[in-house]
Write a structure and sequence with these properties.
The complex is a heterodimer of chains A (457) and B (74). Helix content of chain A is 37%, strand content 18%. Chain A has 457 residues and is α/β, with parallel strands linked by helices. Classes of the chains: A alpha/beta (457), B mainly alpha (74). Chains A and B meet through helix 3, helix 4, helix 7 and helix 8 of A and helix 1 and helix 2 of B.
């Protein structure tokens, strides 16, 4: 039987995740028995699942686990696509933070508490932030401080504060700092005026100073007691502050893309029609939209019930996509921030804890609209490398060729020397036909662009 | 009585072992400070509402300010 322990599941002695014949299972260890029983019998599990805050699971009867420590084995509901906090837009990080705090508050009502508050405990499932670590709950001991407060501040509070007050791109620091952004670094990067906000002063600036002051004085915290009512008040303070974090008037290059593109209504409609036609033929169960911007074209696939991931380099565009889908109750599109020329690497212990972008899953189809010129011209990528890269992702490709006569390409070439002698449709087709067979090709009405449907050889 | 004391003792050890992350001493100290400040502020606020209610100036005590519908979409 093929068994493999999940590579990021090793820190918590309460249990671990493993794959058995392709199924993801979680071993619950004997030391976690009392907490697990409390979670299930107190009503907390039912309440959290009802609120769609915790991933539901089923118990696998008669499974004895992988070692002598096993109490029970459970199978959590599967998450379609694993994503990480450094790939989330601002509003996604905010919803993940609020979900964690809401879970903490509800847990206290049932006599339990979260023992960790890592952003990696949250995934996006059917459009919502959901907690996936069933073993994170422990029985609350009256008076005991919240052990995960520091982790919450590093994983959620600091990146949100930085995105709000300094720069929207700063959650990328989570890629470098696996256990959240160090508070002293965040404190240094934040504007001075944030020291005048009570919650920023407390949860971040003084928190950073306190960490440094008590670095080698481990015994100082041993006998500290915090009344439950005060702990709840602390959680409420965090909830209110997180809720009030907003992106102030930050502008990014592609944030308002669709207001300024060169599509007429006619060409827009025709392009949508072509894509709909190809999607009907391909009938994919899953799709990745590369360079999706605000998701305008991803939603064509979404409307057909296709499970979509919408990648874009622009965090504001991804944020707009996420908020639009949330408002419209569109649950089958997951927007994520991704630079295709430098996609998420494998990081963490042994470079295996967080999976690299290409290994997450293989969609049935790819959309690469209004993308090729950014890769080939802005990033000097030759066609053969682009086609090889795309061919490894999926067997079906719907791609738009944007020629030099297009106004967007003219703009890209305005400020630089045109060294792109091979940037033309003929060479594009030749290089892509190395990896693909072209099934269909259609020029978009009232535009210079052509949409191709290709199948990997 | 002895068995109750003994099981409480062992329970406290088990709970301690399960808390596997380092809470950070500085974070615990700060947490205690913030929790007592905000806790006191809430207590004062509730007390003030009760006084106003008693005097007939306010009709009822305000609901939990942190719970809002739609934060986590259902």
């Amino acid at each position: 039987m093929q068994i493999e322990i999940q590579k990021s599941s090793f820190r918590d002695p309460s249990g671990f995740l493993f794959y058995e014949e392709g199924k993801l299972l979680r071993q619950v260890n004997i030391c976690y028995q009392k907490d697990y029983e409390k979670l299930m019998e107190s009503g907390l599990y039912d309440k959290l699942c009802q609120e769609k805050l915790l991933i539901p699971h089923t118990v696998i009867k008669n499974h004895t686990g992988l070692d002598g420590n096993c109490y029970t084995v459970i199978q959590p509901e599967e998450i379609r696509f694993i994503s990480y906090p450094y790939e989330w837009a601002f509003s996604q990080l905010k919803d993940a933070a609020l979900a964690t705090l809401e879970i903490q508050k509800i847990s206290l009502q049932f006599g339990m508490i979260l023992k960790d508050a890592s952003a990696y405990n949250i995934q996006f499932h059917n459009g919502k932030a959901i907690f996936i670590d069933t073993l994170s709950f422990e029985i609350y001991q009256e008076g005991k401080p919240w052990d995960a407060y520091k982790q919450f501040c590093q994983h959620f509070f600091a990146p949100m504060a930085l995105m709000s007050y300094t720069d929207i791109r700063l959650n990328q620091l989570l890629k470098i700092y696996m256990d959240g952004i160090p508070l002293d670094l965040a404190s240094r990067l934040l504007p001075f005026k944030t020291k005048f906000s009570f919650s920023m002063l407390m949860h971040l600036h003084l928190h950073a100073k306190s960490q440094i002051k008590y670095e080698n004085k481990g015994s100082a915290g041993k006998n500290i007691k915090i009344k439950r009512a005060n702990l709840v008040a602390l959680i409420d303070s965090l909830i209110n502050t997180v809720r009030n974090f907003k992106l102030k008037n930050q502008h990014t290059e592609w944030g308002e893309y669709y207001s300024f593109t060169n599509y007429s209504d006619q060409s827009f409609a025709h392009k949508k029609e072509i894509i709909e036609k190809h999607l009907k033929e391909i009938n994919p169960g899953s799709l990745w939209d590369l360079g999706a911007n605000n998701g305008e074209f991803t939603r064509i696939a979404g409307e057909r019930g296709i499970n979509c991931i919408a990648f874009d380099i622009d965090p504001l565009a991804v944020d707009a996509n996420y908020n639009y889908n949330k408002k419209q109750h569109i649950n089958n599109i997951l927007p994520l921030v991704m630079d295709l020329t430098n996609p998420s690497p494998a990081i963490g212990w042994n470079n295996k804890e967080r999976v690299n972008f290409r290994k997450r899953s293989h969609p049935d189809a790819l959309l690469a609209l209004a993308l090729i010129h950014h890769l080939a011209i802005s990033n000097n990528l030759p066609f053969d490398r682009i086609s090889k890269f795309l061919s490894k992702l999926s067997s079906n490709l719907i791609i738009e060729f944007v020629p030099k006569s297009d106004s967007q390409v003219k703009k890209l070439l305005e400020s630089r020397k045109d060294v792109f002698d091979n940037y033309n449709e003929e060479t594009f087709v030749k290089e892509f036909e190395f990896f693909y067979t072209i099934i269909a090709k259609e020029k978009v009405v009232d535009s210079e662009r052509t949409v191709f449907w290709m199948k990997r050889k | 009585m002895d068995s109750i004391l003994l099981s409480t003792f062992f329970m406290s050890i088990i709970v301690h072992i399960l808390a596997y992350i380092d809470p950070g001493t500085g974070s615990i100290v700060l947490q205690a400070l913030v929790a007592s400040v905000v806790g006191a502020a809430i207590a004062v606020k509730l007390f003030w509402h009760r006084i106003l209610k008693f005097l007939g100036i306010r009709k009822s005590i305000d609901p939990d300010p942190s719970v809002k519908q739609g934060d986590h979409e259902k």
